[in-house]
Automatic annotation (TrEMBL):
This is DUF2147 domain-containing protein. It comes from Levilactobacillus lanxiensis. Residues 1-28 form the signal peptide. Keywords: Signal.
Amino acid sequence: MRKLAATLMMVTALGFGSSVVTTTTANASTWHKGTPKVLRGVWKYSLSGKWKDDVGPMFKLTKTTMKTYGRGSIQGKASYKALGHHKYQVKTKAEGKLPPLNFKFQYVGKNKMRMVGTGYSQLYKR
């Protein structure tokens, strides 16, 4: 009887121990085709902060493409991945021989979006 109890305790301990040691990690941030629904539309940036006077760089995000306006116009098929709550990284493969462009956006509110990067943050409005 003691041998049976000891064997059952060993099997239980080994089974429990192996389930505690084994951890599964999942990478939920996968790349999706297109753009996030919440970011679709035309986004404008004001250089002076007076939104009616001047408009600087702009982004136009459709279901499948992203187009940038400003010092040059670049358009291409887009893909994105979620970085956190209302934070997205959008990349586009520009047409031609240009390298792919990567942008990080944070959706702030109904008509506001922030482009974030290392050391800067620009507010865009619809």
